[in-house]
Every structure is written in C-alpha cells, then in structure tokens.
Specification:
The chain has eight helices and six strands. With about 200 residues, the chain is an alpha+beta fold. The strands form two sheets. The chain has a four-stranded mixed beta sheet. A two-stranded antiparallel sheet has the order 5-6. Strand 1, helix 1 and strand 2 form a beta-alpha-beta unit. Helix 4 packs antiparallel against helix 5 and helix 4 packs across helix 7. The longest helix is centred in the middle third of the chain and has 18 residues. The protein is globular.
Length: about 200
Amino acid sequence: MTVIEVFADVACPFTHVGLRRFVAERAKRDRPDVSLWVRAWPLEIVNGEPLDPRFIAEEVNDIRRQIAPDLFAGFREAAFPASSLPALALAAAAHDADPATGEIVSLALRDLLFEHGTNIANPDVLQGLAASHHLAVDVGQTQRALDEHAEGAARGVVGSPHFFTPGGGYFCPALDIHRDTDGHLHISTDEAGFLTFIASCFE
C-alpha cells in the first residue's frame, strides 16, 4: 500500500478540489493500493485567527465560476465553521482507528461542508459521523490536530494542501492560483503540475 500524506485544512476549498481530482484519478487508474492520509494543517493556527466565512465564500464562487462548476453546489456561508479543529481531530482519530476509515471520514467532512452546507463544527454533526463509522471520539480534544500542525511545520509544509508522495512534496498541485494587482483571484487548472504529481503518486 502506498500512502500519500496531505497536510490540509478541512475548511480549505482548494483542498476539496485537489482531493476530488486525486480520488477521480485513482478510480480511473483502478489503483486502490494508493491511499490518502489527510492530516491537520489548521489555517486558524497558521494565520493566528479564524478563517473569514465571507472570504471563503468569495473563493468558492471564484472556483466554481472559473474551473469547477460541478463542485460546491450546497455550500452555505452561514454554515461555515467557527473552527476546523474539532473536525480535524475527528479525522485524526478516525485514521488512528483504521487508515481506510480515516480517508473516508476526511473526505466526508469536506463533502458535508462544501457540498451539503453543513456546519462541521457542530458536535452533533461530528458525533453522528463518528457513530456512523463506529468511532468513539471526544471531538473536544483537539491536541492531536495541533500536534499534526507542529509536525507539518517541521517538515516544511507551506500551505493547504501540501502533499507528500514517494517522489517528493507538492503544494496545491492541481491548481494555479494568483491574485492580480487589484486583488482579484485568478484560478486555473495546473495540468502539467498535476500530471507530475500524479506520476509521483502512481508510477
């Protein structure tokens, strides 16, 4: 089994795109032997303040308009979590219980937030997801997420998402993202970068 580590925030919309593209590519290649370990890179810790729901909503709208009209269908700014730490802690606990479950829970959390407009900081939501995978988790214990952030920093993570493959590290390999001089966000698919990244994962 090949494990691709990803340090990312569950509330990062660019990660949602990148993980979806990875999963689609894995299915196309019929490579269930390559798994994801999605680890915590909480941007509220990196930035020293919570993510701004309005700012994330603007990024989501730009992503949908420019490259991914099929994603983020149910996103609701009003349901954006005040903190991603409890969700990241649940993902870490799920991986500890079983790596395959860890991947499933990590992807499910992002689908709840970005495709179904669900507040993934709600303890009832997190406990419901945990119970559906037979996990007994205290979602208030977030130290594991903080520990993973510290490990990521020590390993040179530069942002969300940052992948580590057998061939090296790749920051946000699915997208080319920049802002112009007026601050407007421009997003395009980075096909060359993505192909290099995918080759590092599967070949």
